[in-house]
Amino acid sequence: MLNINKKKIIAFLHLGRFHKPIGFYLLLWPMLTALLLAANGKPEIKNLIIFGLGLICVRSAGCAINDIADRNFDAHVTRTRYRPLATGALSVKSAVIFTIIMFLLAFILVLNLNSMAIWLSVFACITTCIYPLFKRFFVAPQFMLSIPFSCSIPMAYAAETNAVSLSAILLLIANMLWVVAYDTQYAMADREDDVKIGLKSSAIWFGNKDNLIIAILQIAVILLLAVVGYLNNLNLPFFIGLDLASVGFIYQYSLTKDRDRDLCLKAFLNNNKVGLVIFLGTLASYY
Q: Which of 23, 46, 60, 173 has the fewest CB atoms within 10 Å distance of its CB?
């Protein structure tokens, strides 16, 4: 039996990153946008609840898997050295049990959706589990991360329409590129530590072209979203949202151009606002 006390509860909350909701927000806004688009502005309340709670569970499970895989590295990285597995606050066994519980809760929720959405959720879980391994050998694991971070989009379309449309595919690609861009900003803060311990990242691979490539990815995101807006007959508020997102991307460049660790993290966090204004623009187009 697990010995649960106040310190253990706090450690479990930290393992699931409940004290750092940025990851949840970065998953939430694209998912809500996809549900709106798939349902022409009127998603089922049931789907909103299932996807919202499921996101919390899967994100927490993903964080735990990442910490289990990186437990021998996190202590050597400035930003991660106080994570519960790195400090010994939790055992690997406890983290595995936590992960299984989170996945089981998510799967119970998903069972209330149709078969297409269920199979897509299985794919999302598999990619969530294997992502940490890519940091060992793949030059840009951020591309792998972009898959589980974007699976809620086709799942939303599957749940609402039992199909994955062209808009869903374009929205999926846009979100994957956005994930690569903002997770590269995140990796820029850890670049020196990752080089020392031998982990791979797009920030290392892109080298001194990191900001240029991030900018190209962000431009592609805006263009793809503009096409999605056109295909769905969205009106002015959506495109104002894209304009505000573009301003956000420019602001992020001003933060990362000197590659300062803290400012790169600040640029990464700003993506929450980018996702929010795109969602609000979509919502305003329907209401």
A: 46
